[in-house]
């Protein structure tokens, strides 16, 4: 297995702060993610805030390829009704937050209007570089691809568009090599 | 000497690819010094450059043209997603068509001709036996989407970078002979994001400086740089997509075959501002030469030995040379007795 | 082909506002290139005792490679460039221009484009408008001017754009209420401002108070170099010393002495001409260097910045 140098495309998550000039504060999270936002939620007058909380099951694959999930519909409605000066605060699993960020951008929000908490859990969405299949909730590397079955090294190289890390076959040079899975951070 | 395209050779399977003495003579050897360090090393791509050199024109057409276009066809048939263009890049694709067709028909009139009457264009590519009439800017009048249409007629990979918010975004391209990067995964990334995996360079501020420089490239003043790696066999498509097919090649190197198996892979990267879209064209023209052919030039062989011997471990790892690097150094040492 | 300079001939000159003249430039040989909306060129003016080089937006249809049009406002405190264009340049004269470069391109992902022009700041939008109309983009033009000085093209714009064109003539007492304008825009709108620094700062301030995302606000200032006190500059490599007079920018003085310094905007914005300072204190007038870089005091943007004292030593 190779030791990865620090890869700069991996997102970093800074502290989330209130955007004071926003007219609406939109909090979107999973139940597990709400505690990270609670102090901020409490700091905003009720008339200026909106809170959407999803169960972990709803949050999975928050936006499917056709954008048809229940979650996407609910969030989509809230985003489309939001004024230009809206601040969005996200908390939950990493892929859930980036799906919502992509949805918000598609309806005209700018990146600086969207803040994300430290992701809940270490689960990663994985994009197989060989067959382009997505494998959800990956916690160890290497991971078997849900599409082609290859054993994938989970790299830190991250695509915001796919909201996923890239996976590359770990033993292509020597298929006899089957390394022990290691937990991802 | 100018290169005429020769019959199709293969970059896979039986690997019949070979360089003629003329192609060896014009090979863009990338090491100006005995030690290699990652750097921006960008310089103006002033054309016409030296006659017959790979720097003579904006797009270099050489003896491998037919072979590379054939290889590109094989890759795209296997995986059409190796070419993509986001909807907002349509204008940039047409800019590329204009830049490519005007350059090629001016620089290689024996192979390419372009007739323009307003927006009615007729393009003839005699090497590929193509003759198409279309309305400039109207993608429905081309036999293929604009990126794929022109990409299938140019040697080397092409990316079109959208410039916005002081950054460059990888929003279109045709990438069938990359040095281990995936257009499908990197699509939409910013300049720093798609360079994320490059070791060491980030802390040096190289990318900040390069980005500012690239964003300010005006029309008519392209720039270029050379990049390099090593490839086992004359394989053009060393993409992550097909890594399962070529990864094991690295185990096949032996002291007996190292000179013929290991190729120096040099990318001539050219950045050129597109007219109407303000996009930046990033062309990556790949040249392959076996160590044996390279060693026919004693100066190159000696310098190659010094560069390989002193290569930093991070770069050996990043470029995927770990398994066979010692054999390369050992074989090259015969040309550099003093070291 | 590599293009450094394009020779053009002045094909027509038109007074388009009391203080603004439009120049139609046609190529002396060959064709011009199409350009992207918001592009500018640097015009080289062969004045005596020294030449000037000023940046002007292209205001012609971007797809038209037959002719470029620029508009020049006569500046009260002109260092000579705009006065030369107004008083010396005649139809038939030849000038040299650079190929187009763009530091103010539209963001094609915008859901609506809100164009705010002040005076001669209408020029880059003249090339935006055909492109926006071609793709069917949503847009509004808000044009602030003083009809006794500027206001070029306003009748033409009003008739072509209809209700998408809003005119504010300060000389008629008509003002633009920025709060009202910015307060009522749909999400995904991008603002583009070209005009005097006061207009840009005004829009930015209102936008910030209204909670606009800063990445949706784009601007291009008239950042022509302003005159200052004369000083001397020494070149570290050769020890050579040049005199920079009050009406000459440091960059122009270097160029006049045959020293090539890369440049693009010539207005302290793009960062191309950044040069290391070995000794002496710079008078920073650019918008490029960060506060930290200014504090370190070891670099300067010679296109607009000068010496705070009598002498600078540059690493050239």
UniProtKB/TrEMBL annotation, chain A:
It holds the Pfam family DmmA-like_C. Residues 125-168 form the Dimethylamine monooxygenase subunit DmmA-like C-terminal domain. It comes from the Bacteria. InterPro entries: DmmA-like_C (IPR048037). NCBIfam families: mono_DmmA_fam. This is Dimethylamine monooxygenase subunit DmmA-like C-terminal domain-containing protein. It comes from Marinobacterium zhoushanense. The lineage of its organism: Bacteria, Pseudomonadati, Pseudomonadota, Gammaproteobacteria, Oceanospirillales.
From TrEMBL, chain B:
Pfam families: HODM_asu-like. InterPro entries: HODM_asu-like. It comes from the Bacteria. This is DUF3445 domain-containing protein. The lineage of its organism: Bacteria, Pseudomonadati, Pseudomonadota, Gammaproteobacteria, Oceanospirillales.
UniProtKB/TrEMBL annotation, chain C:
Residues 3-107 form the FAD-binding FR-type domain. SUPFAM superfamilies: 2Fe-2S ferredoxin-like (SSF54292), Ferredoxin reductase-like, C-terminal NADP-linked domain (SSF52343), Riboflavin synthase domain-like (SSF63380). Residues 231-316 form the 2Fe-2S ferredoxin-type domain. Its cofactor is FMN. It comes from the Bacteria. Keywords: 2Fe-2S, Flavoprotein, FMN, Iron, Iron-sulfur, Metal-binding, Oxidoreductase. This is Ferredoxin--NADP(+) reductase.
């Amino acid at each position: 297995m190779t030791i990865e140098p620090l890869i700069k495309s991996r997102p970093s998550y800074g502290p989330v702060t209130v955007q004071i000039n926003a007219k609406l504060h939109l909090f979107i999270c999973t139940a597990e993610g709400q505690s990270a936002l609670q102090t901020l939620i409490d700091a905003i007058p009720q008339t200026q805030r909106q809170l959407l909380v999803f169960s972990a099951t709803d949050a999975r694959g928050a936006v499917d390829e056709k954008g048809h999930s229940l979650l996407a519909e609910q969030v989509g409605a809230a985003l489309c009704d939001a004024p230009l000066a809206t601040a969005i605060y996200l908390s939950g699993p990493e892929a859930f937050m980036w799906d919502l960020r992509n949805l918000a951008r598609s309806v005209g929000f700018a990146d600086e209007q969207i803040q994300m908490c430290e992701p809940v859990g270490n689960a990663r969405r994985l994009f197989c570089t060989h067959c382009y299949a997505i494998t959800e909730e990956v916690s160890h590397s290497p991971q078997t691809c849900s599409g082609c079955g290859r054993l994938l090294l989970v790299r830190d190289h991250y695509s915001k568009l796919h909201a996923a890390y890239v996976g590359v076959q770990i033993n292509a040079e020597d298929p006899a090599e089957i390394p022990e899975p290691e937990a991802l951070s | 000497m100018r290169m005429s395209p020769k019959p199709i050779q293969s970059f896979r399977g039986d690997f019949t690819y070979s360089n003629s003495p003329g192609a060896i003579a014009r090979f863009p050897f990338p090491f100006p010094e005995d030690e290699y360090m990652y750097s921006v090393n960008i310089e103006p791509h002033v054309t016409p450059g030296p006659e017959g050199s790979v720097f003579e024109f904006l797009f270099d057409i050489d003896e491998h043209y037919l072979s590379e276009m054939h290889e590109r066809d094989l890759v795209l048939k296997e995986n059409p997603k190796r070419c993509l263009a986001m909807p907002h890049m349509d204008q940039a694709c047409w800019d590329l068509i204009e830049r490519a067709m005007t350059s090629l028909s001016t620089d290689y009139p024996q192979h390419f001709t372009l007739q323009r009457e307003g927006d009615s264009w007729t393009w003839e590519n005699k090497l590929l036996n193509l003759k198409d009439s279309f309305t400039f800017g109207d993608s429905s009048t081309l036999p293929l989407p604009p990126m794929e249409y022109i990409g299938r007629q140019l040697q080397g990979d092409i990316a079109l970078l959208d410039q916005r918010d002081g950054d460059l975004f990888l929003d279109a391209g045709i990438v069938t002979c990359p040095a281990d990067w995936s257009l499908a995964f990197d699509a939409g990334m910013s300049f720093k994001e798609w360079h994320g995996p490059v070791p060491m360079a980030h802390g040096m501020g190289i990318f900040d400086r390069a980005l500012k420089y690239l964003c300010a490239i005006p029309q008519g003043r392209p720039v270029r740089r050379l990049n390099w790696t090593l490839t086992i066999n004359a394989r053009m498509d060393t993409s992550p997509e097909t890594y399962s097919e070529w990864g094991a090649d690295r185990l096949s190197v032996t002291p007996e075959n190292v000179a013929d198996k290991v190729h120096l892979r040099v990318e001539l990267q050219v950045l050129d501002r597109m007219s109407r879209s303000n996009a930046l064209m990033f062309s990556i023209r790949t040249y392959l030469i076996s160590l044996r052919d390279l060693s026919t030039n004693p100066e190159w062989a000696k310098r190659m030995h010094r560069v390989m011997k002193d290569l930093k471990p991070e770069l050996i790892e990043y470029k995927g040379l770990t398994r066979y690097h010692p054999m390369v150094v050992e074989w090259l040492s015969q040309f550099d007795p003093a070291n | 082909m590599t293009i450094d300079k394009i020779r053009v001939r002045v094909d027509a000159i038109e007074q388009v506002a009391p203080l603004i003249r439009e120049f139609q430039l046609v190529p002396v040989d060959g064709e011009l290139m199409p350009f992207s909306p918001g592009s500018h060129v640097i015009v080289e003016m062969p004045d005596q005792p020294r030449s000037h080089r000023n940046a002007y937006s292209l205001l012609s249809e971007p797809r038209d490679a037959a002719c470029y049009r620029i508009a020049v406002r006569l500046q009260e405190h002109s260092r000579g460039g705009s006065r030369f264009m107004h008083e010396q340049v005649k139809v038939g004269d030849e000038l040299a221009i650079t190929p187009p470069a763009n530091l103010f391109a539209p963001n094609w992902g915008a859901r609506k484009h809100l164009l705010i022009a002040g005076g001669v700041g209408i020029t880059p939008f003249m090339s935006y408008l055909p492109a926006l109309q071609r793709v069917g983009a949503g847009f509004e033009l808000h044009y602030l001017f003083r009809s006794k000085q500027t206001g070029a093209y306003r009748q033409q714009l009003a008739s072509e754009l209809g209700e998408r064109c809003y005119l504010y003539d300060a000389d008629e007492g008509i003002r633009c209420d920025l709060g009202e304008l910015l307060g009522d825009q749909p999400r995904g709108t991008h603002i583009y401002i070209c005009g005097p620094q006061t207009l840009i700062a005004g829009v930015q301030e209102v936008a910030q108070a209204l909670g606009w995302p800063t990445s949706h606000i784009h601007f291009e200032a008239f950042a022509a170099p302003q005159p200052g006190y004369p000083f001397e500059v020494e070149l570290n490599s050769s020890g050579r010393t040049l005199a920079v007079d009050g009406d000459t920018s440091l960059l122009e003085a270097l160029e006049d002495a045959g020293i090539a310094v890369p440049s693009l905007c010539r207005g302290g914005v793009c960062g191309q001409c950044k040069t290391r300072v070995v000794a002496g204190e710079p008078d920073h007038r650019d918008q490029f260097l960060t506060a930290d870089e200014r504090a370190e005091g070891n670099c300067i943007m010679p296109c607009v910045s000068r010496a705070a004292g009598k002498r600078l030593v540059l690493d050239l």
